[in-house]
Amino acid sequence: xxxxxESGGGLVQPGGSLRLSCAAxxxxxxxxAIGWFRQAPGKEREGVSCISTHDGSTYTVHSVKGRFTISRxxxxxxxYLQMNSLKPEDTAVYYCAATLPGITTVQSMCxxxxxxxxxxxxxxxxxxx
Length: 129
What we know:
Shape: globular
Number of strands: 11
Strand content: over 45%
Oligomer: single chain
């Protein structure tokens, strides 16, 4: 069973930066898509950025493009989300998720059009002065 553990959330002022980490264990394949999703109070969960563990291809939603960068370290089985120029509207619980093994379609994952294999427990990000 693939397990995901997020870390790195916290309180940051507008314009600041945070780096989230998603550590994966129990991988049974070198082909997954792993992505970051967020859910703000009273809103639906939405995709933020997704990456293929196989070839490193990425997909990032328009609202954070140019500010957020997803990356991976396959040796550490860890996916990162570097978040810069944070805005109050980025406040949310950020979740890490993985597809079922063998599925690496990052855009389909980030637009939530395919089934997910695993979710992390989430990490809170608050952007406020």
